[in-house]
Amino acid sequence: MYSPAVQELRAIERHLVEEDLRDVLLLMKVMQSHHNGALYPFAIMGLIGLVVDEATRYVESARAPSSRYPTAARMASAHAANVTKARARIKLFDDSEGYAEGLVRALEVARAKGVEWLNFKHRGLLSSWKRVVQPDLGVFWVGENLLATTHTALPSLGMTSSELESLMPIQMHKLGPQLRDYGQSVGSAIGQLSHELAATGWMVAWNPSVPDDVGVRITHSNFIGAKFYSAAAAGLEPAEERFLGSLILAIAQINTAIHLLPKLLDPNSNLLLRFQVLTTFHSMRMLQQAAPHLMPDNGKVIAAEAQPRISVAVRNLCGHYGLRSAARYAVGADDPLGAAIEGTDGIPRDVFQARIRQWLALRSLNFAQCISKGNMTQHRALLGDHT
Questions:
Q1: What are the tens digits of pLDDT across the range 89-126?
Q2: Distance of CA 326 to the CA centre of its chain
Q3: Residue 191 pLDDT greater than 70, yes or no
Q4: Across the strands, what pairs with 142?
């Protein structure tokens, strides 16, 4: 058995896990109930993968040696690698296979597969003309802001590099059932985690209430991929052309962090804070390599004292569930995660969170001048507006 002090710490950490699982279940309920809900997975499956994988890792590592409960069941093996990769890709410009280069490659493959699928669909008489006018890329928007594309969705939903490489055009028609099975596997894993937490005294709220006004209107436009990427490259000017897909994924994640999730989760949600911190931390690193000229604040200079500064220790607090060396700040606090952040980096949660959100909002504004629904209209495919 653990000592009373360790048991108290474990209780705090498990409560943090329970709160995030509750928010994930809320997101999944919104996906089921909102008229745009079927489009949300394009933007938030990486976040759900992060919670499921990290929560499972925590529950397994924190189990008392004398526990009579079985090891927390992992997801069905057919989907375990997908969730692990979705978790890795929330760390922009990263991947569980090949790290930064693995993600760059995965996005290049996803883009090539879209073209391959288009060519497969249009053969025979008039095929060349059809390929010119037939769109092969879907883009989803929140207002004027890019939220996801069908090309970024494939790797960000956790498909492994080998799966992407071997994907045949005819299989593209079966992605819906495959992704449905993936979602069911995620739900099953959450159920197993909830059961194990309940066995130790915590209970995940299986039926969180969804406010009537929760939900975000998402619109959809179709493009010929080559034209979209050409316009995006001209606007974003990446350091290397191969970084373009990763840069578009970064834009999508930043806009998810500032324009989508705040409309779905409580403003003080720990899960919202975790996602925004991880997005900011890894976006800064990615932009320095892929597009350093996009880092200035677009004429709205953030005072030096208000710049978000995220230590590796705080990044790890937000990316994992164990409190580690920050435990001494969290024990006895009303807001354990906030106290851990303040104790580690010396910044109160409300100030820290405000700086993060200001940086994300300015980055989103900066990106919107390069790629927005309005300025990409001229590049849209014929009859490509599905607003």
A1: 555 555 444 445 666 677 777 767 666 665 555 444 44
A2: 25
A3: yes
A4: 145
Cross-strand partners of 219: 141
Exposure pattern of 229-247 as b/e (b: 16+ CB <10 Å)?
Answer: bebbeeebebeeeebbbbb
Q: Which helix (DSSP H) or strand (DSSP E) does residue 59 occupy?
A: helix 41-62
d(C-alpha 120, C-alpha 127), whole Å: 10
Beta bridge partners of 221: 139, 385
**Pure H helices in 77-236:** 77-89, 99-121, 127-133, 150-156, 161-166, 175-199, 225-236
Give the angle 248-22-25 at the CA atoms, nearest 5°.
60
Contacts of 11 by beta carbon, 8 Å cutoff, 6+ apart: 201, 202
Helix (H, G, I), strand (E, B) or coil at 206: coil
More confident residue, 189 or 323: 323
Three state DSSP letters for 241-252: HHHHHHHHHHHH
Pairing of strands 219-223, 145-149: unpaired
What's the CA gap between 229 and 102, in Å, rounded? 20
Q: Are 59 and 77 in contact (CB under 8 A)?
A: no
Average pLDDT, stretch 364-380?
Answer: 90
Tell me which amino acid residue 315 is.
R
Segment (H or E) for 385: strand 380-385
- Dihedral sign computed on CA atoms, order 81, 287, 41, 266: positive
Cα–Cα distances in Å, from 148 out to 33, 42, 109, 331?
A: 20, 6, 17, 39
Answer for the pair 14, 197: CB distance below 8 angstroms, yes or no.
yes
Q: Cα–Cα distances in Å, from 245 out to 102, 225, 242, 336? A: 12, 12, 7, 37
**DSSP characters over 329-367:** HHTT-SSHHHHHHHHHHS--HHHHHHHHHHHHHHHHHHH
Contacts of 338 (CB under 8 A, 6+ apart): 348, 349
Stretch 253-257: mean pLDDT: 94
Instruction: Name, in order, each residue with C-beta under 8 angstroms of 91's C-beta and a sequence gap of 6 or more.
Output: 278, 282, 319
**pLDDT, greater one: 372 or 127:** 372
